[in-house]
Write a structure and sequence with these properties.
This protein is of the alpha+beta class and about 350 residues long. It contains ten helices and 17 strands. The strands form four sheets. Strands 6, 9, 10, 11, 13, 14 and 15 form a seven-stranded antiparallel β-sheet that branches. A five-stranded parallel β-sheet has the order 3-2-1-4-5, with helices on both faces. Helix 8 links the parallel strand 2 and strand 3 (about 145). It is globular, with a radius of gyration of 24 Å. The mean pLDDT is about 95.
């Protein structure tokens, strides 16, 4: 009798599809860890039919962002992290990886020479799959996966002592949306040894004026003979596009709006900022916003990862476009002020 059948005897003798459907019930009730256990067991049973397989995968995939699949294919990103980890790693070092995901950063840390890696992941399905990836790659003796948020980790229980290196990629297209500031404010103080290394060391939010020919297609005009343009007033002012979006044209130089040294929370910038950019001749209909990660704070390209616009560029992350209140006609050399404000998890930028 399995552990699951001992806890829920009514599942004994039931087919995997019934197990998967019970996992749906548990997930709906907020019992995520139990739902993941049952769905995984159903999925792995040799008699799992196609319908049961689909239901179980739907449970395991719930609340799971699709960017995990794009992220691991981003070789430029992977290379930057591996280069940085190899640069800082010394024999005997312990690493804390925040936000395990697939486990790739933990595996890179071991390959760079880490003696021990503790990695935390609050999504139980992701934590279980990361453990499997780590086992498959022969690193289970060096990497421990803890299915909790980093704020719940404690020295003495989860960690033998402060770690030498903290590595993470808990950022989004806008840099701050995954709670990177609050996490580092806590972890650097509690779990990192004095003088320890934070990777990435610096995160910056960059802005520029731009023209996006695709903006017009996002707006309502006249449709089926009716003017529906009033609806545009309730459209989000922000949207995302790929870094190599066709026809996208920068209409000014880029400038850094906010810059965060993640290992030094006391130095973080204030809640408002302004930068002045020099314009090219033409028109701008958006402010373009993107992020740059300096894995090590030395301005060397091999340790940087920038979500930079360009026709031939590639990135697993995208650009954030902020609609201007009105199209701006620009002359070569015009100086335009771009204003910004932030919280710990969001950024707004605008031109008055």
């Amino acid at each position: 009798m399995s552990r699951i059948e001992e806890r829920w005897p009514f599942l004994r003798g039931q087919r995997p599809h019934a197990w998967a459907m019970f996992a749906v019930v548990l997930m709906d009730k907020g019992k995520t860890a139990e739902a993941v256990d049952i769905a995984l067991e159903a999925l792995r049973r040799p008699d799992c039919c196609a319908r049961g397989d689909q239901v179980a995968r739907e449970v395991l995939n719930r609340n799971l962002p699709n960017w995990h699949w794009a992220l691991v294919r981003d070789e430029r990103r992977n290379s930057a992290y591996e280069t940085a980890l190899a640069k800082v790693m010394k024999p005997g070092m312990t690493v804390l990886d925040i936000g395990t995901g697939t486990g790739i950063l933990s595996l890179l840390a071991v390959r760079a020479g880490a003696e021990r890696v503790i990695t935390c992941e609050e999504n139980p399905a992701v934590a279980r799959m990361a453990q499997e990836n780590i086992r498959i790659n022969g690193a289970a003796d060096k990497i421990s996966v803890i299915a909790r948020n980093s704020r719940d980790l404690q020295i003495g229980d989860d960690l033998d002592g402060p770690v030498d290196v903290v590595v993470s990629e808990i950022v989004d297209n806008a840099l701050l949306g995954e709670g990177v500031l609050a996490t580092h404010r806590d972890v650097v103080k509690r779990l990192l040894r004095p003088g320890g290394q934070v990777i990435p060391a610096v995160g910056s939010i960059k802005v520029a004026l731009a023209y996006d020919p695709g903006l017009e297609r996002r707006l309502m005009k006249s449709h089926s003979g009716f003017d529906l343009s009033a609806f545009n007033q309730i459209q989000s002012p922000n949207y995302k596009i790929p870094v190599n979006s066709p026809g996208l044209k920068l209409m000014s130089e880029a400038a850094t709006m906010f810059r965060f040294s993640f290992g030094e929370p006391d130095t973080w910038p204030g809640l408002t900022a302004k930068c002045t950019v020099t314009a090219a001749s033409g028109v701008a209909n958006i402010i373009l916003r993107w992020s740059k990660l300096d894995l090590i704070d030395n301005d060397q390209p091999e340790f940087s990862y920038e979500v930079e616009p360009g026709e031939t560029n590639k990135s697993s992350w995208g650009l954030v476009c902020v609609m201007l209140k009105k199209i701006i006609a620009l002359n070569e050399g015009d100086r335009i002020d771009i204003h910004g404000s932030r919280t710990d998890t969001s950024v707004r930028v605008w031109v008055d």
